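Postdoc handover notes: sequence design on the structure in folder B. Input tokens:
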């Protein structure tokens, strides 16, 4: 799983949050769009899974940031 590989941490508190976020899988619409878009152009297909994971992680980061700003319980 590309997302888990990218967010792997040796620091247990960070890894606990990473595991929670990785298990809270949504529809994965954004990474799916990246993968489908990679089929339209020429080249870059080998990087599409990593780029899709990065897009999903940026989206998750914005959700976590929003919860932190709103003082929500994570």
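Designed sequence:
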């Amino acid at each position: 799983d590309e997302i888990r590989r990218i967010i792997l941490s040796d620091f247990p508190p960070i890894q606990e949050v990473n595991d929670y976020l990785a298990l809270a899988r949504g529809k994965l619409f954004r990474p799916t769009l990246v993968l489908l878009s990679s089929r339209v152009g020429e080249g870059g297909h080998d990087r599409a899974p990593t780029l899709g994971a990065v897009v999903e992680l940026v989206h998750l980061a914005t959700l976590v940031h929003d919860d932190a700003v709103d003082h929500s319980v994570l």
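Context for whoever picks this up: Residues 62 and 68 are 10 Å apart (CA to CA). Don't rerun without checking with the PI first.
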